Amino acid sequence: MPWFSPGDDPGPNFPRLLEAMGLNATQVGPGEIEVPHATTCVALTYADGVVMAGDRRATSGHLIAHRTMEKVVPADRYSGVAIAGAAGPAMEMIRLFQLQLEHYEKVEGNPISLEGKANQLSSMVRSNLGAALQGMVVIPLFAGYDTHRGLGRLYSYDVTGGRYEEKSYVATGSGSLHAGTVIKVGYRPEMTRDEAVALAARSLWEAADADSATGGPDALRGIYPVVASITAEGWNRLEDDELAALYRTIVDEVSSVTGTSGTGTEAGGAS
Amino acid sequence: MSMPFYVPPEQMMKDRADYARKGIARGRALVGLRYVDGIALVAENPSETLRKISEIYDRIAFAGVGKYNEFDQLRVAGVRAADLKGFQFSRDDVDARSLANEYARFLGQTFTHEMKPMEVEILVAEVGEDATDDQMFHILYDGTMFDQRDHAAIGGDSERINEALAASFSAALDRDDAIRAGVEALSAEHQLGPDDLEVAVLCRGSARRCFQRLSVADLTVILNA
């Protein structure tokens, strides 16, 4: 049973508890390692909250390492985290982050505020700096519904753990330039949920079209990006059926412009 | 110079047990009982903020009576043990039995080795995938552990409360019936109302985290039905 004297007590902090028990993350030695990388994720605010979206591809050099990775995951009921960067450390960071939020809530009896969650993630990114210098960079996006203020909020990070709150939208990963531009052009502050979802889906489409490391919708295998909204009702991930319909509309739109017949089966990202 | 004197071990243990029992008997009791879709935990607790019942893990709840600061430390230690185990292994590997054993060992150790035993009694409940896997463990101040199948009462006057529960328990109770039966069993001296109670359930269902706390408003509806 983990028992501490008042001075050594780690409080509601799970990473500090791990440290106190001698279970903290392994140290990395010198040198650079090639690991699978995860790619484009976006988040934007709309009238009722935020929408987050991320593609499903992980790449290792020029190889597709994984087709069904989920880079956008719920952190708790009212927030989600999306990651770009080295897949292994990123997944471990998400696992620890989710656990930290739940651990705090159970020990303290109340959930952490949204800003507190964003700060927690910031310190986790900072503690990954050593690994980042060896090529294992992890850059998350954090978005959630602030139940105190009644609005959706977004945070982006840099590799040193720097935390920046964004007003309207944010994109991360190798395709972020393309995805971010699509959202920038189409963004309006008072969008409905359907409009925000459509814009996020379109931004990933364009990223997949121009960036080989970003996966597009794969109707053949039934793999679609992860798209979720977070509102006062909490985290809600869209069903694949809805996304399939959404991407069929996008295919039709694109093909009407290019003059080709859209079949709706194969899409962007094919290189 | 003080004279060293001999105290027989039987006497020492008895004194410690009496001391712990007296502390626990001063506090108010709580009950746990199984219902069709889970386990209901009902405590007499007029405080809105100092909890006796809380969540430990996805399917596990903790309830304590006696000295607040002592059972609250045990609660936090339980959350830590469970979260550490789930992190190192898998969420599926965290179970009430091993947690209850850890508690029992810790309380037993404290009872014999520390200056003063802990003045607490605790209940560790786990809701299973189906009703046959539901478990409740009642652990005493000295580490004595009981495996309780259908219902349990801990704290002052628990024998009488257990008898009352045995009379009203049936495996077919639904959630609200179980809560009413629990409140009835606790209301020996005076009828308890929603403001005197703390109630939570471990609800078997689709959600990962089964623990749900009931608000005073929820309770008012249930008790007036």
Number of domains of chain A: 1
> How many strands, which pairing sense, and closed or not: the largest β-sheet of chain B?
5 strands, antiparallel
Overall pLDDT of chain A, averaged? 89
Percentage of residues in helical conformation of chain A: 25-40%
CATH superfamily of chain A: Aminohydrolase, N-terminal nucleophile (Ntn) domain
How many helical stretches of chain A? 7
What is the correct CATH architecture of chain B? 4-Layer Sandwich
What fold name stands as the CATH topology of chain A?
Glutamine Phosphoribosylpyrophosphate, subunit 1, domain 1
Helix content of chain B: 25-40%
Rg measurement of chain A, Å: 19 Å
pLDDT averaged residue by residue of chain B: 93
Overall geometry of chain B? globular
Task: Give your account of this protein's structure.
The complex is a heterodimer of chains A (about 270) and B (about 220). Chain A has about 270 residues and is an alpha+beta fold. Helix content of chain A is about 35%, strand content about 25%. Chain A is built from seven helices and 13 strands. In chain A, the strands form two sheets. In chain A, strands 1, 4, 5, 6, 7, 8, 9 and 10 form an eight-stranded antiparallel β-sheet that branches. Chain A has a five-stranded antiparallel β-sheet with strand order 11-2-3-12-13, with helices on one face. Chain B has about 220 residues and is an alpha+beta fold. Chain B has one domain (about 10-225): Glutamine Phosphoribosylpyrophosphate, subunit 1, domain 1, CATH 3.60.20. In chain B, about 40% of the residues lie in helices and about 25% in strands. Chain B contains six helices and ten strands. Chain B has helices at about 10-25, 70-90, 95-115, 160-170, 175-185, 215-225; strands at about 30-35, 40-45, 55, 60-65, 120-125, 135-140, 145-150, 150-155, 195-205, 210-215. In chain B, β3 and β4 form a beta hairpin. The model of chain B has no long low-confidence stretch (mean pLDDT about 95). The interface of A and B includes residues 3, 21, 95 and 99 of A.
